[in-house]
Write a structure and sequence with these properties.
Keywords: Signal. This protein has about 170 residues and is α+β, with helices and mostly antiparallel strands. It has a domain of about 120 residues: Nuclear Transport Factor 2, Chain: A (Roll), CATH 3.10.450.10. It contains five helices and seven strands. Strand 6 and strand 7 form a beta hairpin. It is globular and about 60 Å long. About 20% of the residues are buried.
Length: about 170
């Protein structure tokens, strides 16, 4: 009996820890979830031909300050059929990625002119720098003090450096 109780407690602990990771939609705080929903809506419009698109994980730590907004998220096309053309809400039962479909990289950010940008593309295209011009409109966000992180190079171009990023 003692061994069974330990196994049950261990299973419960593993379940609890897995529910707290950044790949669980329900564990996201409300503000981050609001921006993830914008990405889901955009991706369902652009990529969700007949199939539901679901949250996969956060790519980076979200920045949701009033002056800086940067939420970068991975989404996946699931095996679930869409319930309607404009449906994008999270569905717990839709977790399995449809075969031969790309992972979708979406960025929700505040641009240099103060507007909000929602850009979704295939992860491979983002990795191959095909959305650099669009995403370059986003306000740069760096963790830490910008006085240490920004330096002037010899050719007088600003370069951002994160000295203690992990």
């Amino acid at each position: 009996m003692d061994g069974a109780l330990k196994a049950l407690l261990l299973a419960a602990l593993i379940l609890l820890v897995s529910a707290q990771t950044s790949d669980n939609y329900r564990s996201l705080n409300g503000l981050v979830r609001k921006h993830v929903d914008k990405a889901l809506k955009k991706a369902n419009q652009d990529f969700g031909t007949g199939y539901h698109i679901a949250f996969h994980s956060l790519i980076t730590t979200p920045m949701t300050r009033e002056s800086i907004l940067n939420v970068n998220v991975l989404l996946k096309v699931t095996t679930c059929k869409k319930t309607s053309n404009d449906a994008y809400e999270h569905r717990d039962e839709c977790n399995e990625q449809k075969e031969k479909t790309p992972v979708i990289d979406c960025l929700v950010c505040k641009t240099n002119d103060g507007n909000e940008l929602v850009d979704c593309a295939k992860k491979i295209d983002v990795s191959n720098q095909k959305h650099t011009e669009i995403r370059g409109k986003c306000i740069d966000h760096l963790t830490g003090g910008s006085d240490i992180l920004t330096r002037l190079s010899e050719d007088n171009k600003k370069q951002s450096r994160c000295l203690e990023c992990v």
